[in-house]
Amino acid sequence: MGTEYDQKLYNQLMEKYKEYDEVLEKLYNIKPEIVEDLFIKIKNVLKKYKMYPIFFINVIATFLQYNSYAAESYWTIVDMLMKEYKIKIGQQALEYPGRLKILLMQNYPKKLLFLKKMQFKVKDIFIPNTDKTIEDHFKNDDVSYFKDKPIQFLINYFNLCIKLGAVSCYKYFKSQGLQPCSDNLEQAIVGRNKEILIDVIENLPQKCFMFTKYEQIRDLELIQLLEKHNQTFDASSTADYYNLPGYLYLLSKKMLI
């Protein structure tokens, strides 16, 4: 458990980076009506903390995976950043979600020098995005769409099925021989479908997971669910305050809420 000194240090850091923390919170919970005001705050934070603008594009790339419904608002922020600053996006853009890569390539090809040199490695970003239709089928839990698909197709989209919490599709995929593994756990957490999450956990070969896999969890109910279904999942055993798992442990014990 964090010491009094740890709590004092945490308070000092949070006070120092208060504006930065507030901007990240607003960015995560972005809405169209706050975009312009948020961009002004982002510019202030960049200036105050002497940060590179690319940092916020990297953050948006991460947030998009959790808040895909806000893609239009996120793209507006990216567009504003690209026009306001002379940003060159390098190798990290290879890890961006497909739609963000496509939008950047379509709108700012001259600034993406690194990607332009590596087109042979990232040809898929020029292909029209077909995942949207598949996502819609998952969001509607439309099993019929997948019943005539080959097993390799199902394997390719098993993670997306779990991430989008399509229970009926998930059960069908399993009936075709697919079984969840540790690689699917993060997507099950993101998907927040408890039936799928419990099934993924209970079907893993051994109930022993590294706590560091849950650094992005901010949902106490999910933490408790993981603890309930995994006897070896013990947050207190990894409570090093100076890393994210330690922070999460304090969060789970309602010390930092």
Helices and strands, in order, run as HHHHHHHHHHHHHH
Percent of residues in β-strands: under 5%
Mean pLDDT: 70
What oligomerization state is this entry in?
Answer: single chain
Radius of gyration: 21 Å
Low-confidence stretches: 113-131, 206-218, 230-257
- Helices, by number, come to 14
Break the fold down into its secondary structure elements and pairings:
Elements lengths: L3 H13 L1 H11 L6 H14 L5 H13 L4 H14 L13 H10 L5 H5 L13 H9 L11 H13 L3 H9 L9 H7 L2 H9 L17 H10 L14 H9 L5
Can you give me a brief rundown of this structure?
This protein has 2 domains: 15-126; 131-252, no CATH class. The protein has 14 helices and no strands.
Description of the structure:
There is one protein chain. With 257 residues, this protein is an all-alpha fold. It has 2 domains: 15-126; 131-252, no CATH class. The protein has helices spanning 4-16, 18-28, 35-48, 54-66, 71-84, 98-107, 113-117, 131-139, 151-163, 167-175, 185-191, 194-202, 220-229, 244-252. Helix 3 packs across helix 5, helix 11 (185-191) packs antiparallel against helix 12 (194-202) and helix 12 runs parallel beside helix 13. The radius of gyration is 21 Å and the shape is globular. The two termini are 15 Å apart. The model is unreliable at 113-131, 206-218 and 230-257 (pLDDT under 50).
